[in-house]
């Protein structure tokens, strides 16, 4: 009897295995996935790895290998920082980074997060780390000597890097906490979703356009990942083992940095060896660790790091009688990567939203579109349930002496601002709150807690909405052209008042400036003459005071407007004109003479510009000693996708897909960026082989 039971049990297990294998084959065939008998990377001529995994773990291992080939030195340095050992490895300039990472508990949390992964996903993380180590072992000569100390990499390093990036760079950072400024994040983005009713071809379209610094942990890595059950194309941040912005044959999504408040700084009143809370004195939980700091002679110096925790979180600063403690959402949500992975594996809206509902991703707007014509805007994030206060209240240091201000829960998915398939047929986000995602308004701010998100609409978002609102039937090519628009919404709003005022009240210099502005095309193209002068004037004014009509929720796309003090505005124009004349020798200097694309060994005239000018084509600059400006961030990865059959897609990774020395793919796409061009996506194997640069078989 026992023998028969064992036979039946084994037969049943075999049947389940066969049925599971058939299901994988069925899923793969219906999602356009090619079943591979071996694992390989096909590198195209732009340095994009197209990964074909015989199974999902093999795909992760190949992805680790690929990231090392493209960004090995950077990846290892980032992992070293996530360990909190960068000063030990590379010296004192990393000391503050280590203090921040260790105080936030990143290395310790990565170990607990690793244990909390599902068995399958834990194996994927192990495989990704194995791919990194395998590449380093085989190509040790291509890795900088000073970063080899990080090897071997473990799966916990991947999770530590994720935690540092998401929670302690994007949600908050040491700089933000020190200044208690939640509005100065060096991150942005544009995102569009266009329904079939608003597109010329009757297909839904998606525009992915993140804006980040062109360096460090903010760099995007472009790839295609194909394995049983998945065939997705997109980007992730260097060191992250899954695609964070992606599309497949059926759907796609992008992220923008949303007006999400996921952290608070609490002021603690110190008493004896503790702090006052709810009328009692509570002791800190205190630990001490040793920081190791590499000296110039190679020796190590050690110093203690005392880490204190209150009920709110770690203490970030302390004086004689007060301290500040930090509270951050999402530290108990370890499955962000698996959620992103399952989003990329989804084949329809229901599957995609099921992954979103896990709420593992702590912030970022989600803009979504699919082949069935659905579009969605989700104000995604872990939003604390707060007992009182509006959004502005929670931007300040919060009293930490009472449990009334201590949040312990987050809003469930159904509480978050969300709209699916609006009547307008389009959705946009340009880092504005969710209330202005489309017009007529589809999400009513009054139905949500006042701390959920602020109420405003900056000029870049207004330009974004204007282009969508004014074109009732958008073609794919028009969407690409709109993506590259450098027209300044602020110039459209104010020049009709500034130019007449300058001619009425101004000196000869101001009148000359008015003539230049009147002849200008209101764009920031490389050959635009007047843009430099206008940008110089904007730096002279206070945008909160310059308008006579303030921004209004009743007219969100056409306010603010008018000059509050025309004479003062003209005086500022004279000052700006004098500076431009002195620096460049003329008022009508071209934008591209002053603002330059500068990455790797490539320098080109720039087009595009930064907030608050209201330019959809976002580009950030840093001043140089000669009066010129160098690009340092903004438009990075761009993807324009039409969910036709087959999918039509054009992309660009502005700075190229590699940072390793001597790679041909450092800045190899910058000329296309300057020319406002995108390149076709090669997703089919035949197209990839037609543009093959290298093949790696595992």
Overview of the molecule:
- With 698 residues, this protein is of the alpha+beta class.
- Among the domains are: 1-30; 191-262 and 332-483, Glutamine Phosphoribosylpyrophosphate, subunit 1, domain 1; 489-615, Aminohydrolase, alpha-helical knob region (Penicillin amidase (Acylase) alpha subunit, N-terminal domain), CATH 1.10.1400.
- Helix content is 34%, strand content 23%.
- Strands 19-17-16-8-7-6-5-2-1-30 form a 10-stranded mixed sheet. Strands 3, 4, 20, 23, 24, 25, 26, 27, 28 and 29 form a 10-stranded mixed sheet that branches. Strands 9, 10, 11, 14, 15 and 18 form a 6-stranded mixed sheet that branches.
- Strand 5 and strand 6 form a beta hairpin.
- The longest helix has 29 residues, at 2-30.
- The chain starts with a helix and ends with a strand.
Strand order of the largest sheet: 19-17-16-8-7-6-5-2-1-30
Low-confidence stretches: 1-34, 180-185
Specify the structural class. Answer: alpha+beta
Share of helix among residues?
A: 25-40%
Shape: globular
CATH topology of the domain at 191-262 and 332-483: Glutamine Phosphoribosylpyrophosphate, subunit 1, domain 1
**Strand residues, percent:** 15-25%
Question: How far is the first residue's CA from the last residue's CA?
Answer: 46 Å
- The overall average pLDDT, rounded, is 94
Annotated CATH architecture of the domain at 191-262 and 332-483? 4-Layer Sandwich
Main sheet, how many strands, which sense, barrel? 10 strands, mixed
């Amino acid at each position: 009897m026992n023998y028969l039971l064992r036979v039946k049990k084994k037969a049943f297990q075999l049947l389940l295995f066969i049925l599971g294998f058939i299901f994988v084959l069925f899923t793969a065939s219906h999602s356009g996935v090619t079943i591979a008998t071996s694992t390989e990377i096909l590198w195209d001529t732009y340095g994009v790895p197209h990964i074909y995994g015989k199974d999902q773990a093999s795909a992760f291992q190949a992805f680790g290998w690929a990231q090392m080939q493209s960004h090995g030195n950077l990846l290892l340095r980032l992992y070293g920082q996530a360990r909190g050992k960068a000063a030990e490895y590379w010296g004192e300039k990393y000391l503050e980074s280590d203090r921040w990472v260790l105080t936030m508990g990143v290395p310790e949390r990565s170990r607990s997060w690793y244990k909390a992964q599902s068995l399958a996903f834990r194996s994927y993380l192990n495989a990704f780390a194995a791919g990194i180590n395998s590449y380093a072992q085989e190509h040790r000569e291509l890795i900088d000597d000073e970063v080899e100390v990080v090897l071997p990499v473990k799966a916990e390093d991947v999770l530590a890097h994720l935690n540092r990036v998401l929670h302690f760079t994007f949600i908050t950072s040491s700089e933000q906490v020190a200044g208690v400024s939640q509005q100065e994040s060096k991150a942005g983005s544009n995102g569009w979703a266009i329904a079939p009713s608003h597109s010329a071809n009757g297909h839904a379209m998606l525009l992915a356009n993140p804006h980040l610094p062109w360096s460090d942990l903010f760099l995007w890595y472009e790839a295609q990942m194909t394995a049983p059950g998945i065939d997705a194309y997109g980007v992730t941040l260097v060191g992250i083992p899954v695609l964070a912005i992606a599309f497949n044959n059926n759907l796609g999504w992008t992220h923008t940095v949303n007006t999400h408040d996921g952290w608070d700084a609490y002021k603690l009143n110190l008493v004896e060896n503790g702090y006052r809370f709810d009328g009692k004195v509570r002791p800190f939980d205190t630990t001490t660790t040793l920081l190791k700091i590499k000296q110039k002679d190679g020796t190590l110096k050690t110093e203690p790091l005392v880490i204190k925790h209150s009920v709110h979180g770690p203490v970030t600063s302390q004086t004689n009688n007060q301290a500040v403690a930090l509270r951050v959402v999402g530290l108990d949500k370890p499955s962000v990567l698996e959620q992103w992975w399952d989003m990329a594996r989804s084949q329809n809206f229901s599957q995609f939203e099921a992954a979103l509902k896990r709420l593992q991703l702590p912030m970022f707007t989600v803009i979504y579109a699919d082949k069935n014509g659905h579009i969605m805007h989700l104000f995604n994030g872990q939003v604390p349930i707060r007992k009182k206060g509006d959004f502005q209240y929670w931007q300040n240091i919060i009293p930490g002496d009472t449990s009334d201000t201590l949040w312990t829960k987050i809003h469930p998915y159904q509480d978050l601002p969300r709209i699916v398939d609006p009547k307008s047929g389009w959705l946009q986000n340009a880092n504005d709150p969710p209330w202005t995602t489309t017009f007529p308004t589809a999400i009513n701010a009054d139905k949500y807690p006042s701390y959920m998100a602020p109420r405003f609409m900056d000029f870049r978002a207004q330009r974004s909405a204007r282009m969508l609102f004014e074109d009732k039937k958008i073609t794919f090519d028009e969407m690409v052209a709109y993506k590259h628009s450098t027209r300044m919404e602020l110039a459209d709003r104010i020049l009709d008042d500034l130019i007449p005022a300058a001619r009425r009240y101004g000196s000869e210099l101001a009148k000359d400036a008015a003539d230049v502005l009147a002849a200008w095309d209101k764009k920031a193209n490389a050959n635009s003459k007047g843009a430099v002068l206008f940008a110089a004037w904007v730096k002279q004014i206070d945008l909160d005071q310059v308008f006579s009509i303030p921004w209004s929720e009743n007219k969100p796309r056409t306010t603010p407007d008018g000059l509050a003090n025309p004479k003062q505005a003209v005086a500022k124009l004279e000052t700006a004109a004098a500076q431009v004349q002195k620096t460049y020798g003329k008022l009508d200097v071209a934008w591209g003479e002053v603002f330059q694309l500068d990455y790797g060994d490539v320098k080109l005239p720039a087009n595009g510009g930064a907030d608050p000018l209201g330019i959809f084509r976002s580009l950030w600059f840093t001043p140089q000693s000669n009066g010129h400006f160098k690009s340092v961030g903004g438009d990075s990865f761009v993807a324009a996708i039409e969910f036709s059959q087959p999918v039509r897609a054009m992309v660009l990774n502005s700075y190229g897909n590699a940072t390793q020395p001597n790679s041909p793919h450092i800045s190899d796409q910058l000329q296309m960026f300057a020319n406002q061009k995108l390149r076709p996506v090669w997703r089919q194997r035949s197209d990839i082989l037609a543009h093959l640069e290298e093949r790696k078989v595992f």
